[in-house]
Amino acid sequence: MEEIRLVKASLKITFEPSDIENQEFNKEYYSLIQLNDDPLRAWLKSSKVRKEADETNQILLTLLVELNRKIDDLTHFIKNPTPIHIPLKYQENVQGIGHGYFQFEKDVLEVGQTYYGRIDMPTFPKREMPLFFEAISKDTAKIIEMHEDDEKDWSAYMVACERVMIRQMKGQNSEY
């Protein structure tokens, strides 16, 4: 087995055994990706790239995009009371993350089994990140399908967790 480097993290995940071809989970996976790639957010990203948003307040623009997204969610709920998310069987805590891997607090996986899940990411904007993963041990999973933008956010969150860990280690070393 390859060496996996994990950093301490605290995330919630809901998941269920599934193969990657499951139509119902694939439909939700792609609909959640589309929610995260709404037209206003795409415009905001492109304006950052083109440097058009430099003169305006980036935080204010992001908050307005999020407000628009919440209104869209409410509109969807009023017009179609069917929930966007499929209820999943299990909910657990993730204690460590790495590039393409994560580790549960408990032994909850069946080795070799593929799963579909949603992880609550504490990013701004906060959202549920859909993914498919495979159990490589009873408590460790390898991510096999994740949207490209979600991969970037995952890596950024991992780096932030690493920075916290390094600061804590430096604080402990300076005490001696």
Please summarize what this structure is.
The protein is of the alpha+beta class. The chain is built from 4 helices and 6 strands; from the N terminus they run E-H-H-H-E-E-E-E-E-H.
Q: Average pLDDT, to the nearest integer?
A: 81
Q: How many helices?
A: 4
Helix content: 40-55%
Question: What fraction of residues sit in β-strands?
Answer: 25-35%
Inertia-based shape: globular
**Which residues form runs of ≥5 with pLDDT under 50?**
none
Output the strand order for the largest sheet.
1-2-3-6-5-4
Write down the domain tally.
Answer: 1
Reported for the largest beta sheet, the result is: 6 strands, antiparallel, barrel
Compute the number of strand runs: 6
What is the element string, with H for helices and E for strands? Answer: EHHHEEEEEH
Compute the gyration radius: what is it?
18 Å
- What structural category characterises the helix and strand content? alpha+beta
The span between the termini is 37 Å
Task: Walk me through the structure.
With 176 residues, the protein is of the alpha+beta class. It has one domain (7-174). It is built from 4 helices and 6 strands, in the order E-H-H-H-E-E-E-E-E-H. The N and C termini lie far apart (37 Å).
List keywords for this structure.
4 helices, alpha+beta, 176 residues
Task: Please outline the helices and strands.
Elements: E1 7-17, H1 23-36, H2 39-49, H3 58-79, E2 90-98, E3 101-104, E4 114-121, E5 127-135, E6 140-145, H4 148-174
Antiparallel strand pairs: 1-2, 1-4, 2-3, 3-6, 4-5, 5-6
